[in-house]
Amino acid sequence: MSFDGLWPYIFIAVAGWLATDLWRWAGVLAGNRIDEKSEVLNWVKAVATALVAAVIAKLIFFPTGTLEASPLWLRLGSVVFGGLCFFVGGRFRQIAGIAAAIGFLAAGLAILGV
Amino acid sequence: MTAETAPDPQSQTHWFLLGMRGIFSLPAIILMLSFVGFAAFTAEAKIPVEQVMFMTGMVWALPAKVILVGSMLSGAHILTAFIAVTLSSVRMMPMVAALIPEIRTSRTPTWLLLFLSHFVAITAWVFAIERVNGVPRDGRVAFFAGFGITLTLLNILLVGLVYGAVSEFPPIVSGCLFFLTPVYFLTSIWISARHRVIYWALGIGLALGWFFAIVAPEYDILLAGVIGGTLAWWGERALRQREARS
Lengths: 114, 246
What we know:
heterodimer, A: mainly alpha, 3 domains, 4 helices, flat, B: mainly alpha, 2 domains, globular
C-alpha cells in the first residue's frame, strides 16, 4: 500500500487501534463484574496466563527474522540453560536466567555463523 | 461505604510517581530493547517514522503491531487486516479482566478504567500483576496509570529517536533482541505466580501453543489459551477439592 496522505493513519486507527482496544474495553466490562475472590477470576487468570504462554511458545518455536534460520535445538538449549541458572540464581534469578539464555544463544549463533 | 474515605490527592500523586519510576525496572528496559528491534524492523520495511510512532501509541501491543505492519506491507484490505489484528488481540480481554478486580476500588469510575485499559499489553500486565500487591488498594489505579502511560509515551519517543539510527543490526544482535522477549516473559510469569494454577497454565499453554501453531496456525493463540487455561483451572480445582476432602 502507499504510505502517503491520510489513508495509512485511517488504516492504523481502524485495523490497529479499534481492533485491539475493543478487546481491552470488553475486558474492563467483564472484569468489573468479577469478584476478586471468585472461582471465575481463577479461571480468567489461567486463560490469560495460557494465552501469554502460547505467545511465548510461538516466539521460541517459530521465530521471525534472523532466528528463523537458527536451529531449534539452539533455541531450546538457551531456554533450558537459562532455566537452570534461574533456579540456582537466588536473589538475582531473573537477571541470571535471562543473561544465561541470551549468552547461550549469542554463543551458539556466533559458533554456527548464523 | 463507611470504610472507604475519598483518596487523598497527595498520595495519588505519590503512587503515580512511584508507578512512573517503574520505567527503570527490568521489564521496562527489556520492552524498550524490543521496541528498538521493532524500530529496526519498520525502518527496514520503509514505513514512515511518523506512522510507526502513531501506531506505537494507538496499538501499543507489540505482537498486534507486527501483524499490522505485515498486513500493510502485503497490501491487505483494511478488513482483512482488522480481522488478523483483532484475532491476535483477543487475549487482551482476559488479561484486562484479570487485572481490573486487582486494582479498582468500589469508587473507581468505569470511564477511567476504559481509558487506562489502553495501556495494558503483556509487559505492563506482567509488571502490574507482579507489583500491585505491594501497593495499597487506593493507590493501585494511580500506580498502574503512572507506569503504563509513561512507558507508552517513552516508547513512542524511543521509536522516533532510534528509527534513523538502527536501519540494520548485525544478525546476532537482532536475534538476541528478539529472544529477550520470550525469555523475560517466562521468568516474570514464574516469579509473579502466587497460585499453583498459574504454573499449570504456563506449562499447558506452552505445550498447546506449540501444538496449535502446527495444527491450527490461524487460531493457535486463542485455542491454546482457552483450552489450556481451562484444563489448568479444572485440573487444579479437582486436585484442590480432593485435598480439601482428605
